[in-house]
Automatic annotation (TrEMBL):
InterPro entries: TINF2 (IPR039098), TINF2_N (IPR029400). This is TERF1-interacting nuclear factor 2. The gene is LOC104959194. GO terms for cellular component: shelterin complex. It holds the Pfam family TINF2_N. GO terms for biological process: regulation of telomere maintenance via telomere lengthening; telomere capping.
Length: 147
């Protein structure tokens, strides 16, 4: 194996970061999604025309939502403080009506899952029945929380 110093000579820091981010996404390593968000933010600030604000906001919203759902899915009582901190960060994204609507629907869903353990259990059972580790919008939930 090559020492890290030799690897840096062969690959730029951006390439190494991109490789790391790609591995996080491929492995669906939700614990590292905050790093993916940081990378997306850095790249879109550096190259603003790469993707639209709306696309960036939807991507960041999706990453944050997945982190929140991962916290909710854990056994035992959810870390309400961490979840509330992440929900508060979601509010920053609302500059587009569609993004704002998605954000609002998601926040209502999270609040309901926090308040109702039976619905929380059902929501994650439906999600894991489709594909373990992937959360999907159950038709009943979608209709219930859609504005």
């Amino acid at each position: 194996a090559l020492p890290l110093s030799s690897l840096r000579l062969m690959a730029s820091p951006l390439q190494l970061t991109y490789s790391y981010i790609w591995q996080v996404i491929r492995q669906r390593n939700v614990k590292q999604y905050a790093k993916v968000e940081e990378f997306v933010t850095m790249v879109t600030q550096t190259v603003p025309d790469l993707i639209s604000f709306k696309q960036t906001a939807q991507l960041v919203l999706g990453l944050r939502a997945r982190i929140i759902l991962d916290l909710l899915q854990k056994d035992g009582p959810p870390d309400s403080k961490a979840i509330q901190t992440l929900i508060n960060k979601l509010k920053v994204l609302a500059k587009d009506p569609e993004v704002e609507k998605s954000q609002t629907n998601f926040m209502v869903l999270v609040q309901n899952l926090l308040k109702n353990p039976a619905e929380k259990k059902r929501f994650f059972q439906v999600s894991s029945a489709v594909s373990p580790g992937v959360v999907v919008e159950d038709e009943e939930y979608f209709v219930k929380y859609k504005n």
